[in-house]
TrEMBL record, chain A:
Record-linked Pfam families: CoA_transf_3
InterPro entries the UniProt entry points to: CoA-transferase_III_domain, CoA-Trfase_fam_III, CoA-Trfase_III_dom3_sf, CoA-Trfase_III_dom_1_sf
SUPFAM superfamilies, alphabetized: CoA-transferase family III (CaiB/BaiF)
One annotated GO molecular function: CoA-transferase activity
Name of the molecule in the record: CoA transferase
Keywords for the protein's UniProt record, in alphabetical order: Transferase
From TrEMBL, chain B:
Source organism, top-level taxon: Bacteria
Pfam family, one: CoA_transf_3
Name of the molecule in the record: CoA transferase
A molecular-function term among this protein's GO annotations: CoA-transferase activity
InterPro entries (alphabetical): CoA-transferase_III_domain, CoA-Trfase_fam_III, CoA-Trfase_III_dom3_sf, CoA-Trfase_III_dom_1_sf
Classification via PANTHER family: SUCCINATE--HYDROXYMETHYLGLUTARATE COA-TRANSFERASE (PTHR48207)
Species the sequence originates in: Desulfacinum infernum
Alphabetic keyword roster: Transferase
């Protein structure tokens, strides 16, 4: 005990939470069974990946010819018959097929749901209900069931029945985030086609939707521990992502104006942006008065501090442009490493105020940086079917029940024999019959 | 008819107007927050919407730096808008935890709580004697999450970080924006809000473990690593092809069609079809039903090929330019593809759908007055999320919390105030004190 106290904090905690030891530890959710009937929707798939990474037994149910999401992949690139977007979110799940449009398929689903803890689905609202396998019907069979439906416009409200499809780009557009992201026109008379509201490059709407769904499901699970009651959960990925907005509605309510697009500036913080440097781009900040003074000291421009002394001067967009140009003169004269060293040297040795430096990294550079491999944020795993792959792990390093990836994905229907035997006692003969009838 | 019946039923079980008649999922959970800015504070804010009691601990006087952060330095009734949204539902305490008696108070709170959330530099809490190493001795059931840029150990240990650095060093900025522009920083603090959100998943998973075993645990969490997890096919693509993922503007190169294009009436409209059926609907709407059978477009894998995608997206862009958003919206409903105009704060404020769903949420706050904000994301039938109040000035709830939860005597509280162990707001800079029009009483729980 005495020795332990003498360890530095970093060494002490690493011994307890190092992801290299993950596989020696138990899993938080290995008592939970999840049925995932997501269809052409990565929000549902990401939600159940997350639950599976924390240990849940996830049964991924696809139509007999596979989920269209298996073709969500850049320029149609396929790896062993599966697209890369889906391959990445098949994690730890058992993949079965089941035709939910057939009565026999619905009956099998009911049997599975009777013994499940969680159902996740992404059909147009009312689809599962019309098939007789919505929450309304399933709760009669299993009152402890937690049922989460994801759809852009949700399960109620004036737009819920609109029938429009849930696609990530649509969720991003409705969220409000796109309206404040991207470059404003340099010349308002002649805006370029790249100077428009801009989405995130990844499926950010779907990922935010999946994350909120996981939070809601886990909260419902905790409530069930005491109450014994399941419940119905309605998540709109657009709203889930919109909850991440800094201040859109309040600003409009308070000032009858909308937050403009200001490119890489921030209407609430300056400087807090990316600058060109000799060999790439550097991020620099210096917002609060002492931090601004620190930045001006580092770049040897005390005049700037005098010219823009308070946040009221620094949060004027016209002033931002002036300050930006002046700071960029300094960054352009240095390499990223020189900038980083100068700033960190100031922080360490002078330390009045803090300037935070960073690099804009291409994902290829990110993949080459040692840090992420040491911390196992990135990991190469050897999948039994798909071979060696590079994945990003969930960020949580946990002392007791860390998340983990055991396998990356499974082919369509690969686990039919295992899951149907284990859950329902179906043998080969029964499965052959179901196959012939097009049920699986 | 069946569908109408479904919507009636769904509304009846999810009806937000009945929220306060129902219980809360996390009503038994208490969280102590020692955080600044957004990454840390958003996590307890999310869980507070689901019922957790949150004690936000700030330093007396200035409090959280975030209290300064507001667009164009415009304050809303004395509150910084960057701070306001994540201040909801919390008890606001100001304790100087850097001195021993303050640290003792903090420990007393932790003894009676379930979760600790902090986002300080690695090792700071440990140095102050209130890190996980110390707190697990006084409360082995505690779930402790530390969120920051790069974690508690590793090559980047010394580096401070912000949201924008997580966006840039993960590669997220590089893959966002147009090819002829700089890598794009999101117009929101993406790595912070989304970081707090996925951090909450870890806390709730730990809670599920504790519900079964009684054991707490420590969670280390890097927001940059979290964004990397959300970058979908990036790592597999680079692994298999050896090529770097670049940025492609508003076009989704993995789902076709999916893009954002201008309508006749000047709206920017996201249009997408993720399945063959949705695509067939879009072809119908465009008056090109034959395209659904055209070998270039008949299957998704064909549509995704560069030359086919470029042609298809160009045709959609030209077609959309001849339709108003209302027409595109109506066609999308009729034919089942996706179409949605890029919405802003005004659109959200005026949207009856989002109001009905408690996303656009009305708060009648005793201190900051009436306001609307981005409200509740998930709708739960048994335990719906809610906002009870918007936020409080620095140290506003000191007396109430110290008395109700720690049982301190009035004399002791007075002593702590005199010794500046606890305290209230300063008048300058703005954002700390109550608004000008505050009557000196409203919102006070124990004077």
């Amino acid at each position: 005990m005495h020795m332990e106290k003498e360890k530095s904090w970093g060494d002490w905690i690493r011994e307890l939470d190092d992801p290299a030891k993950t596989r020696e530890k138990p899993e938080a959710l290995d008592h939970i069974t999840v049925l995932d009937v997501s269809y052409a929707n990565m929000a549902g798939c990401f939600c159940t990946s997350t639950l599976a990474e924390f240990g849940a037994n996830v049964i991924r149910i696809e139509p007999p010819d596979g989920d269209p999401a298996r073709t969500f992949t850049p320029w149609g690139y396929m790896h062993m018959g599966t697209g890369l977007g889906y391959l990445n979110e098949g994690r730890n799940k058992h993949h079965v097929t089941l035709n939910l449009e057939s009565e026999e398929g619905q009956e099998i689903f009911r049997k599975l749901a009777r013994r499940a803890d969680v159902v996740v689905e992404t059909f147009l609202p009312g689809t599962m209900d019309a098939w007789g396998i919505g929450y309304r019907q399933l709760k009669e069979l299993n009152p402890r069931l937690i049922y989460c439906a994801l759809y852009t416009y949700g399960q109620f409200g004036p737009k819920a029945a609109c029938g429009k499809a849930d696609v990530d780009v649509v969720d991003q557009a409705y969220s409000g985030v796109v309206s404040v992201s991207g470059e404003p026109p340099e010349d308002p008379q002649n805006p370029k086609s790249s100077e428009v509201p801009t989405k995130q490059g990844n499926w950010m709407g779907w990922y935010a939707g999946g994350a909120w769904a996981a939070v809601a499901i886990l909260a419902a699970l905790h409530y069930r521990v005491q109450s014994g009651k399941g419940q119905f959960i309605d998540v709109s990925p657009a709203e889930a992502y919109g909850r991440c907005i800094n201040y859109g509605i309040t600003y409009y309510y308070g000032f009858k104006a909308t937050i403009p697009r200001v490119g890489n500036y921030d209407v609430g913080v300056f400087p807090y942006t990316y600058f060109k440097c000799k060999d790439g781009f550097a991020f620099l900040s210096g917002f609060a008065d002492p931090n601004w003074k620190a930045l001006c000291t580092i770049i040897n421009r005390p005049d700037l501090q005098q010219q823009f002394p308070t946040i009221f001067e620094r949060l004027n967009v016209d002033n931002m442009k002036v300050m930006y140009k002046e700071i960029e003169k300094w960054t352009m004269a240095h390499t990223y490493d020189e900038i980083f060293d100068a700033v960190m040297d100031y922080n360490k040795n002078i330390g009045q105020g803090v300037v935070v430096p960073g690099r804009i990294s291409s994902p290829m550079d990110t993949m080459k940086a040692e840090n992420w491999w040491v911390r196992m944020a990135l990991e190469k795993i050897d999948d039994p079917h798909y071979g060696e792959v590079t994945i990003a792990n969930h960020a949580h390093k946990m002392t007791e029940t860390p998340p983990r990836v055991k396998w990356i994905c499974r082919p369509v229907g690969a686990d039919n024999y295992y899951v149907y035997a284990k859950m329902l006692g179906y043998g080969s003969k029964r499965l052959e019959e179901l196959k012939e009838k097009g049920i699986i | 008819m069946a569908r109408e019946d479904y919507f009636k039923w769904a509304e009846s079980v999810l009806d937000p107007s009945k929220t306060f008649e129902k219980p809360e999922a996390l009503a038994d959970i208490k969280i102590v927050e020692l955080c600044t800015l957004i990454l840390g504070p958003s996590l307890p804010a999310y869980l507070s919407e689901l019922g957790a009691t949150v004690f936000k601990v700030e330093l007396p006087g200035m409090g959280d730096t975030m209290r300064s952060l507001t667009p164009f330095a415009k304050f809303f009734n004395g509150a910084a808008m960057g701070w306001l949204k994540e201040a909801r539902n919390k008890y606001h305490l100001a304790i100087d935890v850097r001195v021993e008696e303050g640290a003792e108070l903090f420990k007393e709170l932790v003894k009676r709580s379930d979760v600790v959330v902090e986002n300080l530099r690695a090792g700071t809490m440990d140095k102050w004697g209130i890190g996980y190493r110390q707190l697990r001795e006084i409360n082995p059931r505690i779930i402790y999450i530390a969120l920051n840029g790069f974690g508690q150990w590793g090559p980047y240990l010394e580096r401070p970080s912000y949201d924008a650095i997580a966006q840039s060093e993960s590669g997220e900025a590089w893959i966002s924006g147009f090819p002829d522009k700089l890598p794009m920083k999101a117009g929101i603090w993406l790595a912070d809000y989304y970081g707090g959100l996925v951090g909450a998943v870890g806390v709730l998973a730990a809670l599920a473990h504790r519900d079964r075993t009684g054991r707490g645990q420590y969670i280390e969490y890097s927001q940059a690593e979290n964004l990397m997890r959300a970058m979908d096919w990036t790592w597999l693509y680079q692994h298999f092809t050896g090529k770097c993922r670049e940025r492609y503007g508003n076009r989704d190169v993995s789902i076709c069609p999916a893009d954002i294009v201008p309508s006749k009436d000047g709206e920017m409209v996201a249009i997408g079809a993720a399945t063959d059926k949705q695509f067939q609907g879009l072809c119908q709407a465009m008056g090109k039903p034959e395209w659904a059978q055209d070998p270039r477009f008949a299957t998704h894998l064909e549509r995704l090929k560069e030359e086919n995608a470029v042609e298809l997206l160009e045709a959609i862009r030209n077609w959309a330019a001849t339709k108003t958003y209302a027409e595109l919206d109506q066609l999308a409903s009729q034919h089942g593809f996706g179409a949605q105009k890029v919405s802003n704060g005004k659109d959200h404020f005026e949207d009856e759908h989002l109001r009905k769903r408690n996303f656009t949420y009305y708060v009648d706050d005793p201190i900051y007055g009436e306001l609307y904000e981005e409200g509740i994301a998930p709708k739960l039938s048994e335990t719906p999320g809610r906002i009870k109040w918007a936020g409080k000035p620095v140290g506003f709830d000191n007396e109430y919390v110290l008395k109700r939860y720690l049982g301190l005597k009035t004399k002791k509280i007075k002593y702590l105030k005199e010794k500046n162990i606890i305290g209230k707001w300063v008048d300058v800079p703005p954002g700390r004190k109550p608004p000008e029009r505050w009557d000196g009483k409203s919102g006070l729980l124990l004077a």
